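Reviewers of the previous submission asked for a worked example of the structure-prediction workflow described in the proposal, so we include one complete record here. The input consisted solely of the amino acid sequence. No template or homolog information was supplied to the procedure at any stage.
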Amino acid sequence: MSYMMWYDDDPKRPIAQKIAAAIETYVARFSEQPTVVLVNTGAEQPEVAGVSIEGRGTVPPDHFWVGPVSGTARGAPMRVGV
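From that input alone, the workflow returned the following structure tokens.
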């Protein structure tokens, strides 16, 4: 399965809210809870219950790759965004 890519560059919204919105959209679209959100290595990595937040240099700033398994994303992420 590919990751869903979420983009949110609103500087006023905390990263935890951006991740929560990405997870909510993922669940609505795929009817399952993701287990990992990949973020840029320079981004804050808040605690999220049941989901691992992992930094990756390949994830651009303000992008969030949401998926069902941890590790390196396979394939190109699917774009769904704000």
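The first helix runs from residue 15 to 30. We consider this example representative of the routine output the project will generate in years two and three.
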